[in-house]
């Protein structure tokens, strides 16, 4: 008989396996990074090639907004599921903007992990040298897989297929049913209309104070790029165009 998702015994066994995979990942991360991962937290991962269209920077902005929300009480601590945000990615050697994004995520990790007020609720980790060995540990341990590439830009999205139950693309949604997928943001046809009709990022930032705050963290001194100018160039790419 095939296991049923509404079978309590099956679900209990599934969660036992998930917890064991998280413990194995935590041991691997501690060995290779010297970081003690919170194995009992929800594991939210984005592991793939580092590229602007894959929007690791958007994910980082969202984490920073969550951090501010917890600090200021906008997000209820009682209702928030403690979460590890785990990144793994490599950038092409000459891709300076991608390296700036890696630097930004590591600065974010230093802020969150160093704040005793929230580090019992949040942890940010960027693993080094993401490879098949890391993927073997991360994929079965993950609770959430971030598949947030700009609509219409992902060639096939095979990484989400590896995550199976917690990663989706158009093809999977067609088979599983759109009602079983959580989809946000502009669709491919809406992106095309924005490109045709015009898009003013500064108008968006003026209308959305939370978005403005996290985007301006690139240039307002919240984080340091070590004097390289990478963060200011990233900011210009978002507000003036690439």
Rounded to the nearest angstrom, the radius of gyration is 19 Å
Determine the N-to-C terminus distance: 54 Å
Q: Give the SSE order as H and E letters.
A: HEHEHEHEHHHHHH
Which structural class should the secondary elements be placed in?
Answer: alpha/beta
pLDDT averaged over residues: 90
Structure annotation, total helices: 10
Low-confidence stretches: none
Number of strands: 4
Helix content: 40-55%
- Largest sheet data: 4 strands, parallel
What percentage of amino acids are in beta strands? 5-15%
The gross shape turns out to be globular
- Main sheet: strand order: 3-2-1-4
SSE inventory with pairings:
Elements: H1 8-33, E1 42-47, H2 56-72, E2 83-88, H3 96-113, E3 122-127, H4 132-141, E4 144-145, H5 158-163, H6 170-176, H7 188-197, H8 201-207, H9 209-215, H10 230-239
Helix pairs in contact: 1-4, 2-3, 2-9, 3-10, 8-9
């Amino acid at each position: 008989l095939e296991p049923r998702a509404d079978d309590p015994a099956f679900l209990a066994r599934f969660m036992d396996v998930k917890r064991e995979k998280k413990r194995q990942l935590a041991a691997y991360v501690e060995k290779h990074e010297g970081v003690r991962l919170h194995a009992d937290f929800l594991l939210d991962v984005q592991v793939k090639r580092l590229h602007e269209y894959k929007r690791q920077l958007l994910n980082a902005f969202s984490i920073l907004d969550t951090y501010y929300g917890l600090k200021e009480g906008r997000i209820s601590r009682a209702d928030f599921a403690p979460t590890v945000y785990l990144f793994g990615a490599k950038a092409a050697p000459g891709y300076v903007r991608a390296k700036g994004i890696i630097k930004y995520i590591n600065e974010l990790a230093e802020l969150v992990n160093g704040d005793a007020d929230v580090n019992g609720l949040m942890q940010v980790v960027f693993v080094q040298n993401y490879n098949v060995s890391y993927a073997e540990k991360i994929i079965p341990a993950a609770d959430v897989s971030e598949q947030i590439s700009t609509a219409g830009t992902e060639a096939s999205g095979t990484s989400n297929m590896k995550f199976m139950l917690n990663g989706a693309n158009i093809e999977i949604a067609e088979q599983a049913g759109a009602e079983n997928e959580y989809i946000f943001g502009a669709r491919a046809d809406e992106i095309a209309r924005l490109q045709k009709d015009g898009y003013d990022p500064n108008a968006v930032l003026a209308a959305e104070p939370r978005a403005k705050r996290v985007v301006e963290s690139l240039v307002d001194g919240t984080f340091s790029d070590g004097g390289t100018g990478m963060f200011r160039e990233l900011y210009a790419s978002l507000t003036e165009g690439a």
